[in-house]
Each structure stands twice: as structure tokens, then as C-alpha cells.
Amino acid sequence: MVESTVYQELSDLINPSQVFENAPLSKYTFTKTGGNADFLVFPTTYEEVKKTVQYAVKKNIPYTILGNGSNLIIKDGGIRGIVLILTKLSQIYHEGNDIIAQSGAAIIDVSRYALKQHLTGLEFACGIPGSVGGALFMNAGAYGGEVKDVLTSALVLTSTGELLRMEKSDFEFSYRSSAIAKHHYIVLEGTFSLQPGDVNKIKEKMDELTYLRESKQPLEYPSCGSVFKRPPGYFAGKLIQDSGLQGKQIGGVQVSTKHAGFMVNVDHGTATDYMNLIKYVQRTVKEKFDVDLETEVKIIGED
């Protein structure tokens, strides 16, 4: 790959102010870790996403899609090829009881928008830090609700850059998984079907869930959110706690003393510190309880 040529060709496709070369990704992750991207692109329209993906496919350059980097660890070696960060695609609007949100919008903002429209159904999402695209990708959920409960359709781009409208029956949602992840689709927007509700009751529920989140989760430190999926019949945080691992630290990353299901960056930790601590916790829980902890956090990039 001739770097200057790729940079120039990307700059010709979309505004040069939206294209960066050898850019640090640690600025865009909740953990504040991760190496550099060869090329970093911030599309502002669906057409720019499509053009960039089609260019990458044509030139045989790998590409990676990021939202707001919440449930994510990017390795210290960074990411080769082109990284598209979709946070500038953040429009939210409604048609009747349906809310349409672009993929880069924060799902928290969508739940707040629903409150303003007196619509109920998205209260569970008021504390999920991910983007709409990320939430659809992994069927995000909290406090008894999941994306699959309210999502009715989505506009996606296929891995080769073709537009596709997905309906509810196409999603194949399961616990923290969807057909979007399986087929490597790129979410452009999602449509959420909600119900009219009492604004005071909606706000009361959101305030309650926000309090629960803030009182239980270590929001004062950078973290990647919930690290492990819930093993059948168990809670990951309880297994980690019962293994005596709260406060365990490798490098600058620590198993949170506030919530054992979280790992926090307490002292200039690296992605490698995260990886080593994850492996240590998995090994210890396996030894003590014979339970395999599977990561919920997405881990990408080069060592």
C-alpha cells in the first residue's frame, strides 16, 4: 500500500478535513488505549460511507467500522488499512411512534429523545454508552430490555458496499449477537417502534436506572464496559468477585473494586494490560468454578 496515494485518493473521495493518516485510536476509545490507524475517515453522509467502503474493496484494502468505541479494546499495534468512525452520522428524528436514528448517534441520546416525544420502550437504554450501530450489532441490553424488543428495521451497507433494508425477521437476534455481526453489515440507521407513554413515568424509570448504573458501575475511570458475557446459570461479576479478583491489577488496568464485571484503566494502562488481565481472570475463574468466561467486549487490531 503506497500510503500517500491512498491518503490522496481518500481525500479526493470525501473532504480532506475528514481524512487522517497514521492517527492514534486511543483518542476514540472509552479505555483510552489502542494503537494507530493507517487511515482514519469520518464520513458525514451515507454516500461517503458507501464510497469509502467501495474504494477499499476495489483496492483490496482492509477496512474497519467503529462507533463511539465504548465496548471495545483496540490492541496496541493499531489497525491496518482504513478505519471509518461513524460518530458524525448522529441525526435522530421521529415519524409517529417510530424513532429513526443514524448509526453514530449515542443510544443514550435516542432514549432521551424518546422521552421528549413521550414515547416508552427505550428506557432500558438510558445508561448504555454505545452508538446505535454498536447496539444493533451486538443486540445491546440492560435492566431487562434489549434492542431486539424495539427495533423494527435498519438500513445497512453490505461488506461490498451495497445498500440493504433489513426487516425485523432478518436480524436473527440472540444474546449479544445479531445477523448484522454475522454478515459484517455496516449499520447506517435503525428504526425503533415505541408506544405513547406518560412522560413522568418514563422519566421516573430512566432516573431509577441511571441511579442504579451510577451507584454500581465504576464510571469515574476509563473502561470498556461489561467485559464478559453472562455465563448460563451464573453472573460473570459474581464469579470474578468470588474468585477474590476484585482489585487485581496488571500494569495500569484493574478489576474494578466497585463492580467486578468491569476492568478500569487506573494508571495509564495499555490494551496489552487489558488483554493480560482478561486472560488472568478467565484462567482463575475456570480453575475455581470450571466456568468459561466469554468476552462481551470486542477486541480488534494488531498486537
TrEMBL record:
Compartments in which it is found: Cytoplasm
Q: Which EC numbers characterise this protein's activity in its record?
A: 1.3.1.98
Q: Keywords assigned by UniProt? A: Cell cycle, Cell division, Cell shape, Cell wall biogenesis/degradation, Cytoplasm, FAD, Flavoprotein, NADP, Oxidoreductase, Peptidoglycan synthesis
Q: For this chain's UniProt record, which GO biological process terms are given?
A: cell division; cell wall organization; peptidoglycan biosynthetic process; regulation of cell shape
As its record notes, the protein acts as a catalyst of:
UDP-N-acetyl-alpha-D-muramate + NADP(+) = UDP-N-acetyl-3-O-(1-carboxyvinyl)-alpha-D-glucosamine + NADPH + H(+)
Entry superkingdom:
Bacteria
Q: Does the keyword RNA-binding apply?
A: no
InterPro entries xrefs: FAD-bd_PCMH, FAD-bd_PCMH-like_sf, FAD-bd_PCMH_sub1, FAD-bd_PCMH_sub2, MurB, MurB_C, MurB_C_sf, Oxid_FAD_bind_N
Gene Ontology molecular function: FAD binding; UDP-N-acetylmuramate dehydrogenase activity
EC primary class: oxidoreductase
FAD-binding PCMH-type domain sequence ranges: 33-197
**Pathway the protein acts in:** Cell wall biogenesis; peptidoglycan biosynthesis
Listed under GO cellular component are:
cytosol
Q: Which SUPFAM superfamilies match?
A: FAD-binding/transporter-associated domain-like, Uridine diphospho-N-Acetylenolpyruvylglucosamine reductase, MurB, C-terminal domain
Instruction: List cofactor names only.
Output: FAD
Q: Which PANTHER family match?
A: UDP-N-ACETYLENOLPYRUVOYLGLUCOSAMINE REDUCTASE
Family named by the database record: Belongs to the MurB family.
Descriptive protein name = UDP-N-acetylenolpyruvoylglucosamine reductase
Q: Which organism is it from?
A: Heyndrickxia ginsengihumi
Provide the taxonomic classification: Bacteria, Bacillati, Bacillota, Bacilli, Bacillales
- Write the gene name: murB
